[in-house]
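Lab notebook, bench 4. We co-purified these components, and the gel suggests they stay together. Before we commit to crystallization screens, I want a quick structural picture of the whole thing.
Request: model the full complex, all chains together.
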Amino acid sequence: MYSNLCLTATAVAAIFALLAISTTRFSPPLPETLDEPNIEYLSIDGGVGPESFAFDSAGGGPYTGISDGRIIKWLPDKQRWIDFAVTSPNRTGCEEGEKEEERCGRPLGLRFKHGDGDLYIADAYMGLLHVGANGGLAKPVEFEMEEDQVLGFHSFTFANSLDIDQLSGHVYFTDSSSHYHRRNFASAILSGDSSGRLMKYDPKSKQLSLLLGNLSFPNGVSLSKNRDFLLLAETTKCRILKYWLGTGKAEVVGELPGFPDNIKRSRSSKGGGFWVGIHSRRGGVLRLILSQSWIGKGLVKLPLDVDKIYSYLGKWIGSGGVGVRVSEEGEVMEIIEGKAELRGRSFSEVEEGEDGVLWIGSINSPFAAKINVSKY
Ligand SMILES: *[C@@H]1O[C@H](CO)[C@@H](O)[C@H](O)[C@H]1NC(C)=O
Ligand SMILES: *[C@@H]1O[C@H](CO)[C@@H](O)[C@H](O)[C@H]1NC(C)=O
Ligand SMILES: *[C@@H]1O[C@H](CO)[C@@H](O)[C@H](O)[C@H]1NC(C)=O
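Here is the predicted assembly.
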């Protein structure tokens, strides 16, 4: 125990020493900087952190989940948000946000199933849920485990992102860790935790199956246009995996300049590919921490608030997020960086609206940002 603490004290000293000399290296194409007149900020009352967006089958919305556990819907005509759904019944004290999120829920991934209009929700605490087109209280999906598959845990610790195959109805989703909750995401990253899973849910048979295990913070997941593969963000490793649905084989297709969050397929006919929200750029220090798994593990054992250290480190490492469009092969095609209000904020998601507008989600913003790219 004592030697462990010594080791980690040295590591902390090394990290803080490195802070002074760390430089931000940023290899792929330089970010385009967007002018403020192209960005609208749609402020949110009562909560922060619109993490992910979804449009219903009629193109309405977007809908997004926020810190007090509500899923809200944007009404473009009225220029305001309305309440749509919640993932837990008792709303007392939920305005406290993060402090109460274990009880109030934290809806992250959202996707509508066309046809019946159900909204599927990956909630960081409540697991996989669904709610009808009229909203209200969402219900957990009913499922059966495949007997020949050892899932390890019969519940989800940190459901995060999802996508739906609109033809088969299959829901693909990630459980980012079997050990750490969302609130302790920094610990999950620093410790090199690799207990995350990619799962599939079939609403017809109610079968739940494991597609990939031993993942290091699996996060965004998105189905390809031809429905033959999934792109999957492995946040801790700053990389994108391609999972072939036919063969069940996975390969690394992209290394990124920061920590990837959600992945959404680009709807634009020109270019295509996928938008990846980059939570924060990868600095030299964090790269060092992550390459030395013992440092991360030691840090987690220290009686310090690792999440605070992480946010402190983040302030010094040029932590602002960016949005990156990657091809189906994972090559970086385009990078956008927010100016003004978006500067220094994490990008959890870039979702392309029907009208060529980009919606920028951010886990620490009191607004949803809307960028009109055609004006740019
Ligand atoms: C709702 O939650 C609050 C806060 O935890 C608790 O005091 C209250 O008893 C709960 N109400 C019901 C009906 O369970
Ligand atoms: C994870 O890795 C361990 C050790 O290598 C292995 O025994 C286990 O089967 C793997 N689990 C999954 C779900 O791939
Ligand atoms: C985006 O800007 C273009 C050019 O000013 C405009 O024609 C278009 O209506 C705008 N789109 C939206 C969705 O606001």
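The pocket of 2-acetamido-2-deoxy-beta-D-glucopyranose (ligand 1) is lined by residues 90, 92-93 (CB under 6 Å). Worth comparing against the SEC data before the next meeting. DSSP finds six helices and 27 strands in the chain.
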